What does this fold into?
Amino acid sequence: MNTKLINEKFAEHFGSSGELYASPGRINLIGEHTDYNGGFVFPGAIDKGMVAEIRLNGTDRVRVYSVDLDDYAEFGLREQDAPSQGWARYIFGVCREIEKRGGRIAGFDTAFSGDVPLGAGMSSSAALESTFANALNEIFSLGIDRFELARIGQSTEHNYCGVNCGIMDQFASVFGKAGHLMRLDCRSMEFRYFPFDPESHGYRLVLLDSVVKHELVDSPYNKRRESCERVVAAIAKRHPEVEFLRDATMEMLDEVSGEISEEDRRRARFVIGETQRVLDVCDALERDDYQTVGERMYQTHEGLSKDYEVSCEELDHLNEIARECGVTGSRIMGGGFGGCTINLVKADLYDNFISTAKDRFASRWGHQPKVYDVVISDGARKL
Ligand code: ADP
Ligand code: MG
It folds into this structure.
């Protein structure tokens, strides 16, 4: 991260210097479409993030310079003071959400920059929110606990950016820890750190961005959720303790197979399998068994592609290339229909995998995938 450039820009705009705060983007190793089914996700913070230089300015106004967009915004702290620029609304939203929780803040100057690719599925927006939530909490000694900092980011997306997201991205950005992933239970909000350090076991983690995003006419996400809800309702007739698919077993699913559609059955089979795969991966990591981790990643891809049907030809192609190159694990990361695959690859196979993937993907789709190496790193912090 180029803190020197931020220092220069801050001095140029505000004529002084401030303190530096940083927060990362995130990956999710496994656990897809599990959040709204009350299940587990398994994210980690990455070595790409946002850095902001901040200094109180003695007024009731916030003055912000975006280094990457070369754009400037200025706004007050009242609800009616929302800035017009989309990027500035993330910062305004964080200020507002802090005030709604009773935290008193005052005007500040800031210049910020980040290296999380925008909209590639690594959550640049959560990195932005948690940078400011954490910084303002420290600067004004507000004593907001870390989980609430994540919620402030999530509420910012809901109330000021029109994005109805879950808590995973902000949670990972705030709680991230180098060499560890976090298994978050999306029902109880309990979480646990598990060791994950591919580099010291001879592996690398790399994302391949297909650079496609298929816009779909119907709303596939809502349809998937409805399928899940229908299956839960069918199972709950016999097993009232089943509140979410996370509580269901494959046996329970078999019992109701005559009462649900074939499509709903496949959707539920993916979710029930995925819940178990997250647990399997956690167990495997406690034994440093990266081979099993990789196998589960491939199974997740298969399930997302065939049962949940949220893949696309470009992502299936990237997955196929990974298999052929002997990559240990590969799968779609995120909701699907485009974006990245996440790949766990032995260090000595890395170069061949990347060059093969670039060539083969480009010859079929006319452009190369983008390559993002990631290392699991710490969460929100003061530099
Ligand atoms: P992502 O999946 O990366 O979170 P989003 O669409 O949720 O994608 O958020 C991207 C938005 O966050 C951008 O449109 C911009 O408003 C803001 N943003 C992210 N990174 C930066 C940055 N480096 N500088 C300014 N704004 C940023
Ligand atoms: Mg986002």
Remarks:
- The pocket of magnesium ion (ligand 2) is lined by residues 123, 125-126 (CB under 6 Å).
- The chain has a mean pLDDT of 96.
- The radius of gyration is 22 Å.
- The longest strand covers residues 43-56.
